[in-house]
Amino acid sequence: MERLKRVVDTVIKVRLVECDPYNIVHNSNYFVWFELGRLDYAKKFGYHIKNIRDENIVYMTLAIKCKFLKSAHYDDELIIKTRINKIPIIYAKYSFEQKLYHMKTGELLAVSQTQNVAIDRERNAVLRLEEDERYSKMEKSIREDIEI
Q: What's the pTM value of the predicted model, to 2 decimals?
């Protein structure tokens, strides 16, 4: 299956509240940061969450996995690189790949993959791609040969 290559960057500055007493980031925060990356990605391609709610569409995370490679620390500047990993075929199910890097050193700190889905609230059913108008616009605009 072909991969969508356009990468969206999200910058994070580690706050003290996200750390343990030794200034090491608690791993639960990585999932919050990855969600911010997916929201930035969606916003860039016309999926504004506040507008989508008005249209009775809900985006849900079905599965998430993360491989933690190195720790982040208080006051670190980090960058999340987010892209859609697989093109949906029939239904609005999206697979995201995200990588978290230390901005100063360039070290890879964590890798995440998620499966997300768009659901029509009225029918309580997964949207078909032809029902998700934004998808065709997004698909045309994000095909590039960029690795993250």
A: 0.84
